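P.,

For your records, the input lines for the assembly:
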Amino acid sequence: MSAFCQWLATTSGSIALHESLYMYPLVESTHVLTLCLFVGLAALLDLRLMGLALRDVPVSEVAARFLPWLRVGFVIMVVTGTLLFYAIPVRSYHNVFFRIKAIMLVLAGLNAFVFHNGVFRKVFEWDVAPRAPRAARAAGACSLVLWALIIVSGRMIAYNWFDCDMQPPHWAFVAAGCEGYQR
Amino acid sequence: MTGGSLLPFFQWCEASAIGSAIRTSTWAFAVIESMHLLALAAIGGAVLVVDLRLLGWGLRRQTVADVARDAYPWFVGSLAVMLVTGVALFLSESVKCYYSTPFWWKMSSLALSIIFAFTVRRRVTAADNPQIRPIWLKLVALVSLTLWFGVGAGGRWIGFSG
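Structure tokens returned:
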């Protein structure tokens, strides 16, 4: 994987994006501002599941109205996020916060998958209930926490505190896979 | 530039105890910035859910007033977090902000956004008034989204400039 990232970094597209004066900031700004659309609306859905917002709106209604926007937001996030990785592949791959973010993303995906194929299938049984089933409330809470961690770890990727060429502490050296790190 | 007489004030902000503490700490700026981003997502959701309702592109079966009332505490709460963390970030690099064009865009958009949110938009979303034609509701949503987008884009660009 590290070798793949090193090869990726030598491609002309990666170099062009990395060195561009406006494209990289534009892609990054799009990534950050799409937080409003994607995480903002997802958080409202989570809060609805937890009974903390939009209490009078059926859960199925919130989900149906938000899902098209969440899909749009998700696509923008994935495309811009991939481009950001493509611009700086080796450093990102060996960055502790990037790895934490990747793990949290997988967990958030799993959480959404379990929710949609589990308790959400019978949403019409509890659609307007003042208190959603425990599984639904838990899914909402997990999603909120995971996305918060994803935002924070994503922001921290910018810092080089634990980068392989900064003589990181042992745990970070192991977690970032610095053994196979080559500039 | 916006009034040369403001520079001493910005220098005083930067020299303040809070500003110095954040600047000398390794973690403080990053942690406060992260909180600022978390509140960005929250305020984005709270603004969008109402503006999408006004545009007829989001929740539709609920009245504008119902959606606005539900979103209000989240809007005010996240705005408060935004302002507190934003002031802290500003104190840590006030002079850089003074010379940053995006900073002044952001502050101008922010002032307009807040005024618009608590006057026109709040009035329009406070009670369902059948006399207001949908085109005006849509216009209010578009103005709101444009102003808030200016705040976000300006904010992001402070980091790229200077």
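Two observations worth noting. The CA atoms of residues 119 and 135 of chain A lie 7 Å apart. Chain A has a mean pLDDT of 96.

Regards
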